[in-house]
Amino acid sequence: MNKNMFHIARRVVDSIEKGIKPLIGWERSGEVIKIGADGTPTKRIDVIAENIAVNSIERYCNAILISEEIGVKKIGEEPPEYLIVLDPIDGTYNALNNLPIYSVSIAMGEIPQEIGDSKDILHIVRSMNIEDLKLGMVKNIATGDIYYGIVNSGAYILEKNEREWKKIKVSDTKNLKDASLGVFAYGLTTNTLNFIKDRKVRRIRIFGSVALEMCYVARGALDAFINVNKTTRLCDIAGGYVILKEAGGVITDRDGKPISMKLDIHERTSLICSNTALHQKLVGIFGNKWMLKPTRFGIISRLDKEEALNLVIQVINYLESRGIDYLLERELYNTLKDKVDIRKYKGKVMEDLKDVSHMLSIGGDGTVLRTSRLIGGNEIPIISIDMGTVGFLTEFSRDGVFKAIDMVIKGNYEIEKRTKCACIVKIFNEEGCRNKSNYHQKMLPDALNEVVLITKNPAKMVYFEVYINGEFVEEVRADGLIVSTPTGSTAYSLSAGGPILEPSMDAFVVVPICPFKLFSRPIVVDGNSEIVIRILKKSVLVVIDGTVEETLKKGDEVILRKSDSYTYFVKGRKFYGKLKKLEDYNKKLIPSQV
């Protein structure tokens, strides 16, 4: 039967190639003539290619066809033998502009007889998924190269002008720095753009034909292909999916979960395709690698609020009932001794962070900042539960705590990565000394919200020089200076007149506090910049996320740059919904006058 599928697929791809080549360059080929079954605009060339495929399939078999333009269609009068997933032209833009990277992609599977007799074709389709496809074939129409794979039989290529099929397999590249990576270009995320900017791989290619790019990975011409947005459609990948798996490739979503798509044109998935050695590294960069780890919660709570402690007890009872491991912060463990018989519980004191997969923070913004500081450079996501006053850093309400826990246990959640600010102080041995060798440096903890330089004496101005990437910016006379992360832009920085930044932005904000000069205003600085603040007069305090860390004197310097580590949050509330919450809180503080 696989042999029959091979011949049918070959005839279909050859027919499409022959039929659309004369249309390349025809000005009317690119006209949008309808909206396809998947909800996207359909061009004339797509419809023509699909009609050619339908006519070809009708000559050779009875089947159910799934295609982006036509949706689901039964072909032939007899009960269908095959289910066919078709992308008649993958890379339509390239085809219309005669760029030699566009293809026809087809995948086929046998329909089991017990469901094939059903007259309800949707029932047949819903009874199968992408794993039921047994053959994939992709033809580069521009070059004539053909790729195919049959389950348990390997993957092959027949290059133009060659007579023999050659077996193909994925590359054995192990290091990202040596890798060539294909990227889906539409709707690039900040994470992907930073990845490209930071040159974490040897080279990046954007071809615009998903099926072919998967085949390039299958033959080792690319080491990996990614689309970290959830926009990849069934018809885009069905043919390449079979070929790449048979070539030894690993195909998952961005979080490392297997692709288990239903045979539905409306299905969407993210995609990471690579060899085994690179796959885990790419999931670690782009996805939620914590889904792949055993779950063990660490629990931190504010200790001065009875409601918070009662919620902790409810949480540990819930975790015990689910058989989920957890550990308690030492201070919390000792506090709970006065409320419950703690010895009856499985949870012990959290001694080593390597035993924790996720940190549950029960409290307000202060508890979140304390949690972030405790985690330090460890990659442990925070599940932040709002038991505070404002709770802008928290992601879940107290009523949503069990839902949040279940999301993590089931692996049905997203991670948001937040930039931190690294802070180094350069302390000179003599006040006002300019001898560059007469100093020592001290590394302070990273800031999730902000680094503040403020006078030790209330109502006294301090004097700074501010440099960005070595370039003098201005001399600031003010009550203090704030350097805020995007996360901290809604905290002290906002109160001092700074702008609001989305948490995903790669930037810092430099905000003078009550400046003497009218034109001394907040500055948004690229996140890869180095900010140097030199103290010109008086002593100042360096405050990291609300905690005093160092006293500096005239002549000392503060060096600020993006931290090498991040704080990770399990996503709950939407960012702009939080802004509304902040507005509502302010309305409570300042009641409207009647």
TrEMBL record:
<feature type="binding site">
    <location>
        <position position="370"/>
    </location>
    <ligand>
        <name>NAD(+)</name>
    </ligand>
</feature>
<feature type="binding site">
    <location>
        <begin position="449"/>
        <end position="450"/>
    </location>
    <ligand>
        <name>NAD(+)</name>
    </ligand>
</feature>
<dbReference type="Pfam" id="PF00459">
    <property type="entry name" value="Inositol_P"/>
</dbReference>
<dbReference type="GO" id="GO:0003951">
    <property type="term" value="F:NAD+ kinase activity"/>
</dbReference>
<keyword id="KW-0547">Nucleotide-binding</keyword>
<keyword id="KW-0067">ATP-binding</keyword>
<dbReference type="GO" id="GO:0006741">
    <property type="term" value="P:NADP+ biosynthetic process"/>
</dbReference>
<dbReference type="InterPro" id="IPR002504">
    <property type="entry name" value="NADK"/>
</dbReference>
<dbReference type="GO" id="GO:0019178">
    <property type="term" value="F:NADP phosphatase activity"/>
</dbReference>
<dbReference type="InterPro" id="IPR021175">
    <property type="entry name" value="Bifunctional_PpnK_predicted"/>
</dbReference>
<feature type="binding site">
    <location>
        <position position="68"/>
    </location>
    <ligand>
        <name>Mg(2+) 1</name>
    </ligand>
</feature>
<comment type="similarity">
    <text>In the C-terminal section; belongs to the NAD kinase family.</text>
</comment>
<dbReference type="GO" id="GO:0006553">
    <property type="term" value="P:lysine metabolic process"/>
</dbReference>
<keyword id="KW-0378">Hydrolase</keyword>
<keyword id="KW-0520">NAD</keyword>
<comment type="function">
    <text>Involved in the regulation of the intracellular balance of NAD and NADP, and is a key enzyme in the biosynthesis of NADP. Catalyzes specifically the phosphorylation on 2'-hydroxyl of the adenosine moiety of NAD to yield NADP.</text>
</comment>
<keyword id="KW-0460">Magnesium</keyword>
<dbReference type="Pfam" id="PF20143">
    <property type="entry name" value="NAD_kinase_C"/>
</dbReference>
<dbReference type="InterPro" id="IPR017438">
    <property type="entry name" value="ATP-NAD_kinase_N"/>
</dbReference>
<keyword id="KW-0521">NADP</keyword>
<keyword id="KW-0963">Cytoplasm</keyword>
<keyword id="KW-0479">Metal-binding</keyword>
<protein>
    <recommendedName>
        <fullName>NAD kinase</fullName>
        <ecNumber>2.7.1.23</ecNumber>
    </recommendedName>
</protein>
<comment type="subunit">
    <text>Homotetramer.</text>
</comment>
<feature type="binding site">
    <location>
        <position position="479"/>
    </location>
    <ligand>
        <name>NAD(+)</name>
    </ligand>
</feature>
<dbReference type="GO" id="GO:0019674">
    <property type="term" value="P:NAD+ metabolic process"/>
</dbReference>
<dbReference type="GO" id="GO:0046872">
    <property type="term" value="F:metal ion binding"/>
</dbReference>
<feature type="binding site">
    <location>
        <position position="87"/>
    </location>
    <ligand>
        <name>Mg(2+) 1</name>
    </ligand>
</feature>
<dbReference type="InterPro" id="IPR016064">
    <property type="entry name" value="NAD/diacylglycerol_kinase_sf"/>
</dbReference>
<feature type="binding site">
    <location>
        <position position="90"/>
    </location>
    <ligand>
        <name>Mg(2+) 2</name>
    </ligand>
</feature>
<feature type="binding site">
    <location>
        <position position="89"/>
    </location>
    <ligand>
        <name>Mg(2+) 1</name>
    </ligand>
</feature>
<feature type="binding site">
    <location>
        <position position="236"/>
    </location>
    <ligand>
        <name>Mg(2+) 1</name>
    </ligand>
</feature>
<dbReference type="GO" id="GO:0005524">
    <property type="term" value="F:ATP binding"/>
</dbReference>
<dbReference type="InterPro" id="IPR017437">
    <property type="entry name" value="ATP-NAD_kinase_PpnK-typ_C"/>
</dbReference>
<feature type="binding site">
    <location>
        <begin position="365"/>
        <end position="366"/>
    </location>
    <ligand>
        <name>NAD(+)</name>
    </ligand>
</feature>
<keyword id="KW-0511">Multifunctional enzyme</keyword>
<keyword id="KW-0418">Kinase</keyword>
<keyword id="KW-0808">Transferase</keyword>
<dbReference type="GO" id="GO:0005737">
    <property type="term" value="C:cytoplasm"/>
</dbReference>
<feature type="binding site">
    <location>
        <position position="477"/>
    </location>
    <ligand>
        <name>NAD(+)</name>
    </ligand>
</feature>
<comment type="similarity">
    <text>Belongs to the NAD kinase family.</text>
</comment>
<feature type="active site" description="Proton acceptor">
    <location>
        <position position="365"/>
    </location>
</feature>
